[in-house]
């Protein structure tokens, strides 16, 4: 019986071999091994050295048929999906970066007691300086015609219900154009029956300019604090006057107006009647550094206060140029240098600050 089973199995094997019409099994096994081993052997060849990461190379496309996607520089649109669904643009077209723009900003108290001829000589001398592009003026209420007639310049002056503001802002017409301007409330004045040192109410001038070549928009805040606000015996501390109390209020309102501007590039100009060196030593509460420092930084803080005084009579540095603190921190604004120009008819000397906008 066992022999019959074995004989039957051998007959089955013979029949299966006779039915196979393909290549011999040994040849099939060799072929499969060749397919599996050949790629591994081929990948074992030497490779080219890695490319220099600092070098950028783009092969030119050969033809439309041979290159399914064009390899050309192009603008890229970044789009994300908002949390509510749909498209939410997160950036504009990525164009080549624009070059930095260098500008000069000056602050100048004209002294309201000057004659029109003296004021004209001062204004034309300052604006003829090629390093100056924008000027914030104080005590300019009598010299609007002088400022409006500056060759190659435009000026924003302000009048409210017959009250002519002492503040004005001028700019080079070939470099900037006016976007908008306004005068906002600052502080009430002090009447003769209220305090020893009366003064008229103060405002804040806000002027937005557009740089013609780059399209960057620069907002200028110009202001003038009242006199008799700093302790003469201890510079950098507040005097015990109603003027000082109003000045602290004015600084707070300047800081608030600054924070509401919303521009990427903001500068401040002004006669603050508070010495920059003394303020840096004392840092009195409510002073320029403590109050405006929340939103801005002055050229004295960034570059040092080793310039000549802007008010030579008392050797004080009370005229300022500020830039937006966030813009400077993020690299959009940079102080380059500053200096004080001598020999003007006014009792003040203008401070000039060169800035870089990126």
From TrEMBL:
<dbReference type="InterPro" id="IPR036691">
    <property type="entry name" value="Endo/exonu/phosph_ase_sf"/>
</dbReference>
<dbReference type="GO" id="GO:0004519">
    <property type="term" value="F:endonuclease activity"/>
</dbReference>
<keyword id="KW-0540">Nuclease</keyword>
<keyword id="KW-0378">Hydrolase</keyword>
<keyword id="KW-0269">Exonuclease</keyword>
<feature type="region of interest" description="Disordered">
    <location>
        <begin position="44"/>
        <end position="70"/>
    </location>
</feature>
<protein>
    <submittedName>
        <fullName>Endonuclease/exonuclease/phosphatase family metal-dependent hydrolase</fullName>
    </submittedName>
</protein>
<keyword id="KW-0255">Endonuclease</keyword>
<dbReference type="GO" id="GO:0004527">
    <property type="term" value="F:exonuclease activity"/>
</dbReference>
